[in-house]
Amino acid sequence: MAVLQACLQYTMGIMMKNTFRRFIAVLLSICVVLSVGLTENLTVLAGELKTGKTLPTTQAEVWKRTDIILTSEKEYTNPYLDVEIDAVFEHTDGTKIHLYGFWNGEDEWRVRFSPTKTGTWSYTITSSDTANTGLHNVSGKVEAVPNTGNTDLDQHGFVRISDNGRYFTYDDGTPFYWLGDTNWQAPNYVSTTQCNYPDCKCQNQFQHEVDDRLNKGFTVYQTYFDSGENDGGGQLATTSEPSLWLDQYNMINPDTFTDKIDGMFDYLADNGMVIALGYGVHSHTVNGMGQEAVEQISRYLTARYASYPVVWITAQEITGEPHYNVWKASAEIVDQGDGYNHPQGAHMFPMDNNNAYARDLDEQPWHEWWGLQNGHGPTQQSKDFYKSYWDNEKVKPFLELEANYEDITCGGFNGYDASRISAWRTNLMGSYGFTYGTTGVWANSYSTAGNMGWYGSFSFEPWYMGLDKPGSHEMTYLRKFFEYVRFYELIPRFNDTAYSNCTAENKLVASTEDGKTYVAYFYNKDLSTGSLSALNTDDVYTARWYNPLTGKFADAAEGITSADGTYEIPKKPTTGDWVFLLTSEDLGAYETEELYDDPYISPRENLAVGAAATASSDNSNFTSFAADCAVDGDYNTYWCADSGDMPQWLELDMGEPKSFQEINILMHRGMSTKTEKVSYSVKGSLDGENWEEIYEAADQKPTVVKNMDRLRITREGTYRYLRLEYTDITSNWAAVYEVEVFAEKSPEEETDQLENLASFSVAEASSVSATSTADKAVDGSSSTWWCADSGNMPQWLSLDLQEEKTFNNIRMYMYGGTSLVDYTILGSNDKEDWQPLYTGVDEKPKQAVNSQSVVLDIPAAGTYRYLKVAFSKVAGNWASIVELEIYNDPALTNINHASNASVTASSVSAPVSAPSKSIDGDNTTYWCASSGDMPQWIQYDLGESRKIGFINMYMVGGTSSVSYQLEGSDDGDNWSLITEEADRKTINKGGLSLVEILTDCNYQYLKLTFHDVQGNWPTMSEFEVYSEAIAPPEDDEVPEYEGVLQTPLVKSVGSGVYTEDGVYSNTDSCLFDGDASTEWVPYGPVGSQTILMDMLQENVLHGIVVKLGNGSYLPKYRIEGSNNKTDWTILADATLRDPQVYQKDGGQAVYETLAGQYRYVKLLWLNAPNNATNKQIAEIELYADQATPKYPQQAQTDELQSLYSDWKSKNNNRQVYTNASWKALQVQLQAAGRLLVDPYASPADVDGVTNALKSAVNGLEEKGDKTDLQVLVRNAEGKQEKDYTPESWKVFAQALTNALNVLADSQAGKKAVAQAYTSLSQADQSLVRVTKPNPPAEPVKVSSIRLNKTSDRLFVKARLKLSASVSPADAKDRTITWSCSNTAVAAVDASGNVTAKKKGSVVITAKANDGSGKSASCSVTVVKATVKLNAKSIPLQLKKSTKAVKASGLQKGDQIKSWSSSKKSVAAVDKKGKITAKKTGNTTITVKTRKGASAKLTVKVVKSKVTTKSIKADVSKLTLKKGKSRKLNVTRNPVTATEKITYETSNKRVADVNKSGKITAKKRGTADITVKTSNKKSYKVKVNVK
Fold this sequence. Notes:
This protein is an alpha+beta fold. It contains 20 helices and 97 strands.
């Protein structure tokens, strides 16, 4: 009944359309008949067959679709289900193609066909209803003609699987690289009638997305039909737009396909995009549909789209039973109706699950390739997983169809680099292609209003915010590389050590079978790489690095040979991911760039990365805490023992002996696990059996580095094996993020081996016992001691340190058995005035390691000459000291005394916000009171009395001001006021609200009471207590950038806010408005955003300052520059190192020095720590040489919009016009499309693009009718040359050749055809028959000689190839002789090869040998290469770099070839002449040019700072006209001095000067301009203004 009702409603709705559609169908058929020729059954129009069953012959291009239109003679209750039609197409060579037909609405059925070869195809159509003569036994022909398109699909055909089964190819065997995007459910939810991309006027979301992907080189549009229409994603929430169904699952809505989906697929196919079509459904939809309905929709989709360039994807995630057999049946239906045998696979869910079903799929005859799914989230599958597919008995391609979506939350959050890493990994493991995915696009989230289906669960941005993520550009570079290296020849080597030792998961290698090309990908966190094996010993290789972020190469080495077939890959350029190419093949031209040189990135290589690791135990029962996690180069993974039991050990095998000077053990530091003290040893071995001790420590306190507890050991050694043995750890288990082994010590850090300041002191005591005198307490021996003469109290021991010394830690070793001590540590500088530094009451000494002594670790600090230990009680012994050690430990300087405090509070909002969260070292956790009621308090017990000089109170971001009081106590009961403040304003730091307290007191307990808090409830993210104040950075530490503050145009689609009614409001204007209170807000802050700044002109950059908004966390970021928005250069990269952050205006700001000349600057604002969501920006300051030009006026684009929309919708018309004219139109349409989305386009730009588009439209040339030309050519080909005079035959032959070329050119236009016909016809009529033999011709002499050059300029030893054109072509003797006017300057050989010998000028002459006297000459000037430096010698401070040395004086056409240093250990120089001082001494820097010139200077590396000795301007006197300007060029002596230069004028009214040295003449008179350096060197320039 429901079906009948739906049919009635449908019939009523189309009643008025029915007659019109029949009329149109008839007209279309008449047009076909008229264009091809009438058949013998003229009455057969659109299937309305009365007496015959043959349709008119139609014409179609190869690989292009044509529809055979049929009209039913019968009406059906449900045309979708009640009748089926099939068609068989047969070529004259016997090739057959079987296809389904489909109902297209009303009484119309269609069969859609794409011929695969030229020639005649005959077809027969049959129907399940044999009585319906409109559908049954209908026949006809299709004449297939050559394809006139210019896409790869047009030229090479549909996609198939390669002959070796490993990858995809086009039909003709051309390799096809799969680069897809997940546009899931696009037929349902993507709009083709509107577009809400900000400022866009294209009115077609679908085309906007496709055009973006086409421009980025994507080749596959991966989509499926949501048959259940219940996944959502579109602008109408979970409703398909429009619906696929008239009656769900029972009757299809053909208008949806005709009016929308066919047009979408036509656009994809006509633009060369392969459609990876998921024709099945989700598991939950199968429940509602049932197997019969699934099979029916599968048949319908196959009928409509098998003739498109498709690749089939069975189901939408095969999840096993209960629906597995339904999906198999669906696939079989498709297989039977796809006469093209398009590759058919299945969408696996997830990759590792349901292995039994995967094995069964492998046996299905229709299954030809694997569609894998990596689970969306951050997990990367192992090498072994992919190897199982590569090694599968049935060789099939396998592809990641869903892997590591960019900016998606699914089992964890994916960062911006997740897709890139997954893509490179899988490609080098045999998956020749990749499907990218990103938030918003895959879910087709049109906007954010209402219920958005997937939106809000996995996807958190609308489609247009996800469209231009960094990963989408990186996919362009992925395809570019793999097509360049011929991906189809690569073989993944996995962990095969015959080819490489890169066995770690983050190091991958593939190579060609012949060993000529190797590709390696490294995404480890350090610089280590590996080695390659099985190279050809006779080949010569070149090495290059490829940057997956920019798509460009950097040359690494050339001329590489390997006698043993191995090659050691050089260290990575930076710690990011890199691709290494080693090849002996000429793979073609490639783009290069200078390697990104970041002075903040450490060049040190961790020698332990990749070592074989074993351990006493690991915690792998819970997660991957295996031993090798401590040497995998990843600081997010760590080895962990299985318990806190001791001892525990970790052993490393580095493969070969390695020399080192520093070892760092980076231990795990969690929210509640902080390593307080460690007793351990490190041993080394060359054979793994005989061990030597490298270092041993007892109760060592680690330092905190990047939220890790670090043990730093500065010991030199050379070992293959290292063994770390723990004997005791306080407050933690044995857990190591990474063991770092470095060849050189870090230059910026002091050694960890502390000096005992008591070693040379003089000791006195209150009394002594026999030989246990006072000096024994400081003699460095554990077998002697001071002891009092009795157990009477008090007793004391004092030390004279000989001079005032600063200390912060005292270790007092006492005689074994001492169990309890009361004592005071005092300090003095005159032995009279003693200050108490620390008092211990009932303290229990600990047993010392490897000793019978007991020890107290005393946190006494100060700067004194004299120290005294005063005992008032000692239990278990008399007063005695074995050794008194005094240290100034950097690790204890300003240690946070609150890090291990006991914390209580007045109230708690929830367990997750407990008071202890305020000292857990994690700024994303915090204590929070239970309400905003006041007062609220939080109290800290520091464990013992501490000197308190400085306190940081980090509250939750957004807290604007607080009123509070801070109290201290020694017993927790009696409190003293330390400080109190009202309405204290906070400062933003790292996304938190900070209050800093400076004080000077000593307490064990601290109590903070809140009386008022603005912007939040009382909170505390981190409470830090230090003994000394933390000095703010000095003014000269904060960079100051030269140049002019820019006011660029800004575009950042990934930002903004939505109003309550869902209207998007962009916040880009807040970035450069000069108001820090207005902020730029990222819409989906957990993901990445791109801020594009356009300075409207190329400009020399100096720096950028990015001030964070209130409560913001600083994310990772990268800054890039470009002049065309296509080719980008990395200018600063804080994904590889820490950001450069300083305080600015009470908050944090990023400062990055930039260099280079660019128009566009792009800030990639990436993931914040712990995926924090506060990433807003208060203000950006961008500095460059010239001020930003004025904004162009807003332009009117109505005419352009109309023209663009009109021709953008006429894509099918491309067959009417010639390729060249159509391609020219597409170029202008693309330009128009780009301009229409640019809100700042100027009127001139709009006029120019509009006129260009009009010209392209007017320039469209229709293809010509060649029928008459073919007849004329056939007639002309019957003529013979001997019958006609040479003159007339020559013209005729040329016209015939031209006509044949036009006939062969499928793109020949009307003009070309008409012109060819006219020329041939006229030449034919002008032929003159031969009447008598022609007399013998006179020998033809040379009439002229022309050289390829008439003048040139050569460097000495350079060569020039001259060639001569001798006319006429039929001259009897066309030989020539070469000569040179001065053989001492240059020489020329018989072939015209000129070699320059010495400086001078010559004339090279070519003269004819036939006596005609004809000649031609070329003047050649020979020059000698020169180069000079701006200094002969320079001093350079140790560890400093300079770019001040400049090379000049090069001859035109010459370039700098290299810079080199005679002693790289003293000073090194890079490719650009940047000199870096390494150690004191002298070295010679040499610069060489490509043409052989060289120059040298001496560099003297000194420890002291290089200062200016003198300064000079380029003029001493200057005359300027009023209003004119002139910039002084100032040089320092030496050039390596760096003092700041200032300028001042003696008379601003006459001549003024700015801070850059630019002088401006104001009025007549004279003025002195003084140039000064900060070390008081000066130079005067006298200015005369006329």
